[in-house]
Amino acid sequence: MQELKKLLRLAGPILVAQLSFTAMSLVDTLVAGRYGSDDLAGVAIGGSFWLPALMFTQAVLYSVTPFVAQALGRGDDRARGHYLRQGIWLGAIVGSLVWLIVFNLGDIGLAQIGSMPHIEQIAGDYLFWIILSLPVAGAYQAIRSFVEGSGRTRPVMFVNLTGLILNIPLNYIFVFGEFGAPEMGGAGCGLATGLVLLYMLMAMVCYLRFGAVRAAASRKDWLPSLRTFLQLGRIGLPIGLTIVAEVSIFAVLALIIAPLGADVIAGHQVALSMTSQTFMLPMSVSLALTVRVGYFHGAGDWQGMMRAIKAGYLLGIGGGLMTAILLYFGANVLTGFYTDNPRVHEVAVAILFLPVLYQIPDAIQVCSAGILRGLKITRTPMLAVLIAYWGIALPIGYTLGRTDWLIEPMGARGLWLGLVIGLTLAAIFLVTITWVSLRRVRRRLEAVV
């Protein structure tokens, strides 16, 4: 029970921080929509390039958390500070490299979409301004991972919440040209979000200087270390690739669904938006588990680690059960907040009964991934997720949704049923990997004793 309370104290602020960060995209969408439908379309298209780039950059820097948590468990403040500074370097470098790729290939990608030229221009301008903040986002994520790995999650929650609040007036200022600012339309959303990310980085730097972690953060060895970059990269790159695989499969699903008509696409998008929000709950537990498992692993405390793992699974499964009940009984009401189109509403509700089936398996697999990150094991989970999503979920979903090879085509529901199967298998794969890995960790810890 004590460990469950500690996990809740970590996971609660992480959940608020995650929701605040994702809500910034919602603010962009709402403000751009107020300005004009073309700008809304441009921001949506630009966001389809921005979000994968941002998520990859952030995911690579998740690797800082287990190194810092294990160092905290050992009582090694010098190592914690070292991983912080090297993480900031790595975050800026990874963010710059991803910026370079998107900057050079973004126009080519936008041209392939085949949208109207003026919408393509808005998307390009939005993307230009927002990707300038990728190095900033990388450095911010490194500091965030350090702070959370040190067991401090409330400062991140505060910074993200204030960033969300700041994003609202900045959007209006740059989109509509208020207070002497240029009227940028949808592109102003990109500039506003970039400035908010800069604020968030500066706020986290201030916390490093004056907050509870200042003792570990105050060392002066700022020289970059290739060895540490490789250590962090070996853990972080598979996490980043896993995130890209997860994001891209939903993009592919949208392309497969596209010929089924605008109402089906819209219904799919509504269901995807809702399930993305419910996913934040188990994801927050997963991030908290990484901190606790890493801490106990660094301390060599097997019993403490098992208490954290049991509490994490209990919390994750409980959260998955809650979101399943919410989606099952609240699908009609919740969908009404997104659309008043009867056909879109009907499609979304029909789809949403399928995610109900994978809420608990999804919670189990994401909690297992958090445990494995705490042990600094990421390559095998990446392969398991790739197989489950791309090797199983997508082929089965396509077969059920778009062909008559087995049964009459099920449309979008068939594709989502493929996801249910894939996520359930991912949970089985990752639980198995976790069990095998924990046996090895136990033998290693007992050998040390």
Automatic annotation (TrEMBL):
<feature type="transmembrane region" description="Helical">
    <location>
        <begin position="88"/>
        <end position="106"/>
    </location>
</feature>
<keyword id="KW-0050">Antiport</keyword>
<feature type="transmembrane region" description="Helical">
    <location>
        <begin position="415"/>
        <end position="436"/>
    </location>
</feature>
<feature type="transmembrane region" description="Helical">
    <location>
        <begin position="49"/>
        <end position="68"/>
    </location>
</feature>
<dbReference type="InterPro" id="IPR048279">
    <property type="entry name" value="MdtK-like"/>
</dbReference>
<dbReference type="InterPro" id="IPR050222">
    <property type="entry name" value="MATE_MdtK"/>
</dbReference>
<dbReference type="GO" id="GO:0042910">
    <property type="term" value="F:xenobiotic transmembrane transporter activity"/>
</dbReference>
<keyword id="KW-0813">Transport</keyword>
<keyword id="KW-0812">Transmembrane</keyword>
<dbReference type="GO" id="GO:0015297">
    <property type="term" value="F:antiporter activity"/>
</dbReference>
<feature type="transmembrane region" description="Helical">
    <location>
        <begin position="343"/>
        <end position="360"/>
    </location>
</feature>
<protein>
    <recommendedName>
        <fullName>Multidrug-efflux transporter</fullName>
    </recommendedName>
</protein>
<feature type="transmembrane region" description="Helical">
    <location>
        <begin position="155"/>
        <end position="176"/>
    </location>
</feature>
<feature type="transmembrane region" description="Helical">
    <location>
        <begin position="196"/>
        <end position="217"/>
    </location>
</feature>
<feature type="transmembrane region" description="Helical">
    <location>
        <begin position="126"/>
        <end position="143"/>
    </location>
</feature>
<dbReference type="GO" id="GO:0006811">
    <property type="term" value="P:monoatomic ion transport"/>
</dbReference>
<feature type="transmembrane region" description="Helical">
    <location>
        <begin position="311"/>
        <end position="331"/>
    </location>
</feature>
<keyword id="KW-0472">Membrane</keyword>
<keyword id="KW-1133">Transmembrane helix</keyword>
<keyword id="KW-0406">Ion transport</keyword>
<keyword id="KW-1003">Cell membrane</keyword>
<dbReference type="InterPro" id="IPR002528">
    <property type="entry name" value="MATE_fam"/>
</dbReference>
<feature type="transmembrane region" description="Helical">
    <location>
        <begin position="381"/>
        <end position="400"/>
    </location>
</feature>
<feature type="transmembrane region" description="Helical">
    <location>
        <begin position="279"/>
        <end position="299"/>
    </location>
</feature>
<feature type="transmembrane region" description="Helical">
    <location>
        <begin position="237"/>
        <end position="259"/>
    </location>
</feature>
<dbReference type="GO" id="GO:0005886">
    <property type="term" value="C:plasma membrane"/>
</dbReference>
<dbReference type="Pfam" id="PF01554">
    <property type="entry name" value="MatE"/>
</dbReference>
